[in-house]
Amino acid sequence: MKTNKLLIKTKKGLSKDIQNILPDYEPKLNKSRRFIPVCAPDIRGNELKYVKDCLSTNWISSAGSYVKRFENSFSHACQTKYGVSCSSGTAALHLALASLGIGPGDEVIVPTFTMIATANTVVYTGAKPVFVDADQNTWNIDSSLIEKSITKKTKAIIVVHTYGYPADMETVVALARKHCLFVIEDACEAHGATYKGKSVGSLADVACFSFYGNKILTTGEGGMLVTNKKNIADIARTLRDHGFSKRRHFWHEHVGFNYRMTNLQAAIGLAQTERINQLVRHRIENAKLYKKCLKGIKGIVFPPESSDRGNVFWLYTVLIEKSFKVSRNNLRCLLADEGIETRPVFIPVHLQPVYYQDCFSGHFPVAEDLCSRGLCLPSAGLLLKKHIELIAGLINKYSDQR
Q1: pLDDT of residue 360
Q2: Are residues 206 and 262 in the same domain?
Q3: Cβ count near 103 (within 10 Å)
């Protein structure tokens, strides 16, 4: 893809339009009084016990029993038959695409408002990502815009459940069936979320989860592919392990990858899965408290919610409007000076230097607007009520500044 050289330069070298969209550089955190991280793992269950068991039995590689136990436990939590653990959420997405036969000459529809790994994994296969704008109400891919992006080369649609809020799966799956396309759920941010009573991860041909350290459920690093289709799971397991044949050792009928998860990671994952309902409930309770404490502050837009979709609020994300008095970027600086870590939302993939094309200009207004206003507040599993009340109190204080 053509690279826009302006995007590689410092911010002073960017065009005015892009300058207004991109977040500023990271503010310096003042930790002299306190430090509230944007995210941190909650590992207060059987994690240490199971890891010690791995060490005492000398099973620390991918051959240990915890790998299969974790796969079975997590896939069951997702209401799916099969789970294939791997080294990261990115690896899971790559495995999913490769297992579906996606390759050179193919196109895969992806939302532009997502973490860049969603698009990168398409490129890993040799296929081309085709970007679609976000829906202003859900922040997920705008399902009404997908069909016009489908061509004869389109083979799949990747749907991201952004920040833990399920996408419009019913419409997307219907479109996919109409055009004979695969659907992949990028559920890396949505452990425990539900859509019309069904678990996220069970709504498409295959789904992918991340267990990075900031996720609701973590193994430090790691990921998993879940599916109800045995053929997809079988291919994914083979590709995950260098394409080794089950019939003859050191015999390879596929070009595979080294995407295995270790027994140590799986031990942590199993302990986390045992507490998945508690971990999810804590995120939802935090979201309710944030909304209660921030209610009435002019210029704050809350994350999407609806009766038929269970948002798990992976990161509690708000939009900062002009009426707030302080810009999103300045608010981040003010909070950082109080030792409170925040994040901007995702920079749309079409604006990334490695994907930018001049023809993208003006085609993704919702994603660009979200990027310019979005703010992720601390959402750690160990976050306390007093932390949320402090953060909300400071935001209320800053809303009066001019």
Answers
A1: 78
A2: yes
A3: 12
> Which candidate, 271, 277, 354, 348, places its Cα nearest to that of 310?
277
- Dihedral over alpha carbons 377, 301, 390, 346 (to 10 degrees): 10
- Residue ranges of alpha helices (H) inside 275-313 are 276-294
Distances from the Cα of 50 to the Cαs of 84, 217, 220, 262, 266, in angstroms? 20, 16, 15, 13, 9
- Which residue segment(s) compose the domain that 328 sits in? 5-41+276-398
* E strands in 112-227: 128-132, 154-160, 182-186, 194-195, 198-199, 206-210, 223-227
CA–CA distance, 402 with 330 (Å, rounded to integer): 11
Contact criterion met (CB below 8 Å) for 143 and 167: yes
Q: Which amino acid is at 29?
A: L
- Contact between 148 and 169 under an 8 Å Cβ cutoff? The reply is no
> Do β-strands 198-199 and 107-111 pair in parallel, antiparallel, or remain unpaired?
unpaired
How confident is the model over 344-394, as pLDDT tens digits? 999 999 999 999 887 777 789 999 999 999 999 999 888 999 999 999 999
Residue 198, CA distances (Å) to 84, 164, 281, 316, 353 in order: 20, 14, 17, 22, 38
Q: Are residues 219 and 164 in the same domain?
A: yes
